[in-house]
TrEMBL record:
It holds the Pfam family OLF. Residues 131-387 form the Olfactomedin-like domain. Residues 1-18 form the signal peptide. GO terms for biological process: signal transduction. Keywords: Coiled coil, Developmental protein, Disulfide bond, Glycoprotein, Secreted, Signal. The gene is Olfml3. This is OLFL3 protein. PANTHER family: OLFACTOMEDIN-LIKE PROTEIN 3, OLFACTOMEDIN-RELATED. Belongs to the OLFML3 family.
Amino acid sequence: MGPRRCLLLLLLAAALRAQQQQFMEYVERRLTLLEERISQWHDQSSRYSTELRDFKNQVLGMLEAAEKEREAMRTEAESAAVRVDRLEREVDYLEMQNPAPPCVEVDETLMEKQVATAKQRKNEKYTKLTDCSDTIASIRSMKILKRFGSTSGLWTKDAAGNSEKIYVFDGTANDTVYVFPRMREFTLFSATRKAARIKLPYPWVGTGHLVYNGHLYYIRQQGPFQVIKFNLANKTVVDSSVFPAEEQIPVFGLSPFTYIEVAADEEGLWAIYATKEDEKNICLAKLDPTSLDIEQMWDTPCPRENAEGAFVVCGALHVVYNTRLPSRSRVQCVFDVSGTLAPEDASLVYFPKRYGSHSGMKYSPQERQIYAWDDGYQIIYRMEMKKKLEV
């Protein structure tokens, strides 16, 4: 091997050693940088863990404070409820401090006399007291005010007076009537403690009650079916009358809780009922609002089956029908006691589309609208009228 080749090999070996040294230095720098980054990540991770632990402890402290505040508020609410209950009992006690109600026991002799008189005048020609000759042409609008109380009930205003008070009968059997001073209070407030309470001396049943000229006419729950006349001003029973009908049955097939529906129109007071004697059809009676005597009685062609409610307009009974599975309500039978309007000439009137079941319907002669209780909703229906002869 010549000297030149040896020199070349030595130069190559020196170059390789220099490259290896540079590569090792590069690898060491990269490893050092990586170790620095791992150390930095470890420091940041430790700091984040510490901050997370501090935040967790802070949240736990806030939750404990919130739980203590919730417990304190619950205790205050329970205390307030106890005070409200005590106040309501005191108010009820004060309202009950009135003269003893008159005796409303059944006088069998008087009842027999009323039955005989009513049968004598049954189905006689009716002499109109007013010149009212209107009937319902259509029900054009409804207004759903709110949802209050049970699925079944009744709400109404005084059908003969100018009072703005709203009377609410929640449920189908109770002894307490809620009274709201105006429609606004009834609409805005849901709590019953916003309303005055009238505790009746005898519990009521059904949804056929009526407020008329400062008096409440309601059906007594226990014993024979009595119409109680209750003075709303002095909270006393003014009079009562056992309804002169034997073996009464629910008047509406779809509302089995109502046996007597007391109604008012332009002519005065009416009673809608049914008996075993003619259990397929609904009966109608004219009442004297002062003495509760029955002035006249009629058998109507309106069937009880699928009836859910009824009201009287200008001396004509309007019966509202539905189906077992609630659908659209309609006035399908009209019976005019004066004979001006034949049932077959009356229009078939549908209520605005709402699939529910009416448990209470009260006609207001002054406002020409109906206060209805539909599956827990309180609704006002406004009606369009026309003359009976034009139908």
